[in-house]
Design brief:
- By secondary structure, the protein is mostly helical.
- The protein has one domain (about 5-55).
- Helices cover about 90% and strands about 0% of the residues.
- This is CsbD family protein.
- InterPro entries: CsbD, UPF0337_stress_rsp, YjbJ_sf.
- It comes from Kangsaoukella pontilimi.
- Belongs to the UPF0337 (CsbD) family.
Length: about 55
Amino acid sequence: MDKDRLIGSAKVVKGKVKAAVGKAVGDAKLEAEGQADKVEGKVQNAVGGIKDTIRDA
């Protein structure tokens, strides 16, 4: 498993937590940052998946 997949998954989790906290306290900026972290994590996870596929081929 590529390290990008691990880091990406961690960013997704971090983003979910950050977005939930931002929503709970009414902080739109924190919520938006959380959403951005989730997207960044999903992209990094996808890149890691592509690297794994290429390595296994």
